[in-house]
Amino acid sequence: MGIAPARFVLGFVLSLGLALSSALIATPATAAALTNTVKPSISGKAVYSRTLTADPGEWTPAATSYTFQWLRNGSPIKKATAATYVIGLEDLGRRLSVQVTASDGAATGTATSARTSKVARATLKAKGGQKIKGVVRFTRTLDAKVGFWNQKPTRLKFQWLRFGKPIAGATKQRYRIAPEDVGTALRVQITAKAPGYKVTTVKTARTARVRHRVDVRRVVRYHVETRGTITTSVKTFRALANQTLNDPRGWRSSGIEFRQVAKGGSMTLVLSSASAVPSFSSACSSTWSCRVGRYVIINQERWKHASPAWNAAKQGLRGYRHMVVNHESGHFLGLGHASCPGPGKLAPVMMQQSKSRNGCRFNPWPTAREIASRTPGRGRLADPDFPGYSRVDVE
Hints:
By secondary structure, the protein is of the alpha+beta class.
């Protein structure tokens, strides 16, 4: 009887002690989450390659640290967890935002900034040095210098311009000056591209006026006459013949300028009916054109219709007119007939191409060799005192 009550009392005391101990051990209170009072924001332009900076905003209670996660159209961007973010190619056309997690050491809170505007391409800017290098003369080649840019272009396009208008096919960095360029000013339009940047186009300054291959070193004055019955436009004949005589591809390239005068001069350019051609010399034929002394005689029938061989090759009437004027005036300048330099090569303009070409190709212009032979300092020029001046030359 005495033992049982004692055990009961002891058990009660132990239970009470445990209960008191549990009561004395306080249960920690759950910390309240941080509240965002001013939303996070982003500073910087939403433009490729620019740097954006996150402002974490304001929090209650005050935060002691922040972590960041940049978002592209609302989705996390891998490894973009710093307070700043450099905009990449993948961001073009997308909207960016930043998610900020604030902490005071005991609790955290999360808030997301407003999205930026759509990321735009950056501006590719020319920093100078875009220019044309080279000698601005017919037959020379010009080079477009691309200069300096705020970002090195990965792709460049070129378009050469003549008096501001695109030259067909002239889309390389280098440009060989063409006959049509003489007397005009050239420039080049450069279009630059780089990833993430807007396509940018700049134009160089214009060149000086394009000059002939060489400056004028001798002037041949001539006037125009007719013989026999003329059934074609003399006005047109005068204009087209003068164009040929002073074309950059012709004898003008040797430094000889043909200057038309009302009368006189050292050369007479004659448009003659076929039947009147032999009146200049018995060596002249009514079939072809001819040169007799100072007279450069163009057969009207050939001028109007070209030659059978030329037409069969479909070379065009204007080409024939170039050829016959260059050929006969070449005789005036002291050149005789030439032969074919080799099969497949251009025929010298002094070759009798309408009769035989021996494998050469039709050609209305003096070859480089012929031009060089008439260039002052490299060959003799025709002159009234030059031996052979009175020789008769038939096309």
